[in-house]
C-alpha cells in the first residue's frame, strides 16, 4: 500500500456527497494509519461562504453575520451566482461547500474580517475565529447577504476506499485517528 501513496500526492481526486454533488480537490498529503490511506485534500476552486446580516434580537440594532443554512441557499443561488459573475467567478453548488471557479480578487485589508464562530471553541475554551475576504454583497427579500471566501485554505481529511473511491472521513472516524494523523503531519512539517 505504501507504494500507492506517492502517486496520489499532487493529483486531483473528487469527493461526492449524498446528493451526488462533486468537489474536485488537490491531494496535499497522503498519510497511512493502521494500514488505511488518509488524504489531506483542498478544493481546486475557491470555497465560498454565504452569510446573512441579522439582528441578534428584535430590540438590538446591532447586526451580526449568520451562516446561511444549506436548505436556504436554493432561492439565493441565482442572485449570488450573478453577483460573483461580475467578478469573473462562477459560483457552483459543489459537495460539502459552495465553490467559485476563477481567480478571486487580491485580498485587501478593507475587505477582510475575522468572524468568531460561536459553536466552536478550542481546547482552552477560547472561541474559534476564522478570517474571511468579503467578495460581494446583495439583497434578497429585504435581507442583506455577503459572499466571502476564507483566507486560510479549506482542508478536508478523506480516505481512499479499497475500490479507489475517495470519501470524506466522518467526524467519529477522524477522532479515532486524529492524534496519529497530527503526529504524521507534524513530522512532515519538520
Automatic annotation (TrEMBL):
Protein name (database record): DUF3727 domain-containing protein
Amino acid at each position: 500500500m505504501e507504494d500507492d501513496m506517492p502517486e496520489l500526492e499532487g493529483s486531483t481526486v473528487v469527493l461526492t456527497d449524498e446528493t451526488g454533488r462533486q468537489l474536485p480537490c488537490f491531494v496535499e498529503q497522503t498519510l497511512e494509519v493502521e494500514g488505511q490511506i488518509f488524504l489531506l485534500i483542498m478544493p481546486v476552486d475557491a470555497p465560498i461562504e454565504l452569510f446573512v446580516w441579522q439582528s441578534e434580537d428584535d430590540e438590538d440594532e446591532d447586526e451580526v453575520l449568520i451562516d446561511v443554512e444549506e436548505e436556504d441557499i436554493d432561492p439565493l443561488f441565482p442572485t449570488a451566482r450573478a453577483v460573483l459573475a461580475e467578478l469573473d467567478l462562477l459560483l457552483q453548488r459543489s459537495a460539502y461547500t459552495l465553490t467559485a471557479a476563477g481567480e478571486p480578487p487580491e485580498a485587501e485589508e478593507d475587505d477582510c474580517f475575522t468572524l468568531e464562530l460561536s459553536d466552536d471553541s478550542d481546547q482552552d475554551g477560547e472561541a474559534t475565529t476564522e478570517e474571511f475576504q468579503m467578495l460581494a454583497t446583495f439583497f434578497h427579500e429585504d435581507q442583506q447577504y455577503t459572499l466571502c471566501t476564507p483566507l486560510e485554505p479549506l482542508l478536508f481529511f478523506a480516505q481512499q476506499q479499497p475500490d479507489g473511491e475517495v470519501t470524506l472521513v466522518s467526524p467519529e472516524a477522524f477522532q479515532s485517528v486524529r492524534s496519529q494523523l497530527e503526529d504524521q503531519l507534524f513530522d512532515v512539517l519538520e
